[in-house]
Amino acid sequence: MKHYESIPAIYTQTGVSRFDGNPLIEALPPLEVSKEKILERIEFNPPKFTGADRTKGDLVRIAELSRIASVIYPFAEYSRTAANATMNLREAYVARNPLTPLGQRRRTLIGTMTDEQSLSASQLRSTALGQTILGVTGSGKTTFGRRFLEPYCVVIEHTEYRGRPFMCRQIPVIHMNVMHDATMLSFCIQFFDAIDRILGNTHYAREAKSIRRIALMALLAQKVATAVSLGGVFIDDLQHLRAARSGQAEIVLNFFSQFIELAGVSIIFAGTPALGPVIEKSVRNVRKMTSGGATSFPLMGRNDPQWSAFCDALWGYRIVRNLGPLDKSTRAAWHNCSGGNPAFTAMSFLLAQRQEIGSREVVDSTAFERVAATEMSFLRPAINAVLSKRQNHLERFDDLVFKGDLDDLREWVGREESRTEGSKIDPEFEQVQHAEELSKPRKPRVKARSKSGTGKAHSKTRRPAPEPLPTIAPRI
Question: Do 231 and 361 reside in the same domain of the chain?
Answer without folding.
Answer: no
